[in-house]
Amino acid sequence: MIQVLAIITTHPGKRGDVLAAFHENRAAVLAEDGCLEYGAVVDAANLPPGWATFGPDTFVVVEKWASFDALKAHAKAPHMAAYGAKTKEWVANRAIHVMEPV
User: Fold this and answer.
1) What's the rounded Cα separation, in Å, for the pair 101 and 65?
2) pLDDT tens track of the chain, all 102 residues?
3) In which domain, by residue range, is 67 found?
4) pTM of the entire structure?
5) CB atoms within 10 A of CB 57
6) Contact 52, 31 (CB under 8 A)
7) Count of structural domains within the chain
């Protein structure tokens, strides 16, 4: 199994727009062969001072894939290309962390 944490930072005030596009695309991703989990998370509300946060313009996509080949196919899927084109102007940075269990 492969796990992915995709840290998406948007331009100020654009996180809601990118999340809306993410949710529109989510069903297509979940239907892909090998997709076990695909969801977005944001900082929890009312955290105590000193706890780390990503901030109001960032969200994290938590993904689980049956194999690295499934993840590679996902990256090339037409609906992902469309999602990328739709959100391109709103996204400031993406950091994709691909991991495996130990």
Assistant:
1) 12
2) 999 999 999 999 999 999 999 999 999 999 999 999 999 999 999 999 999 999 999 999 999 999 999 999 999 999 999 999 999 999 999 999 999 999
3) 2-43+56-99
4) 0.94
5) 17
6) no
7) 1
